[in-house]
Amino acid sequence: MDNNKTNVESIDEYIAAFSPEVQQILQEIRQGIRDSAPEAREKISYQMPTFEQHGNLVHFAAYSNHIGFYPAPSGIEAFKEELAGYKSSKGAIQFPLAQPVPLELISRIVKFRVAENAEKAALKKEAKKKRK
């Protein structure tokens, strides 16, 4: 699937565009995120599967040789030692399709992002109260 040329409207539609092998990996990641952030809402953002709860938590996407996982720069920084074996940038991690995807690590990153977003939302709410 070419993420830049295809407009999808749901995560199901996104996943269906890939080979059965990649679909299985994407579904495992999706389920792991759901289990780690049961209150998060699914959507498509930037033409990628996205989970949001008090703002975007994580995005993920399939490419020809890897799965891209986007937990915001803070999610990468907090787990940088465990992610050292993967190609990454400020906001993205690449999990090679030729290797098992570290679902347990993804789960911990998602839980970190849920807590981070909840804290930011609480601080924002408190600041709003003080202005009134």
From TrEMBL:
It comes from the Bacteria. InterPro entries: YdhG-like. It holds the Pfam family DUF1801. SUPFAM superfamilies: YdhG-like. Residues 23-114 form the YdhG-like domain. This is YdhG-like domain-containing protein. It comes from Paenibacillus albidus.
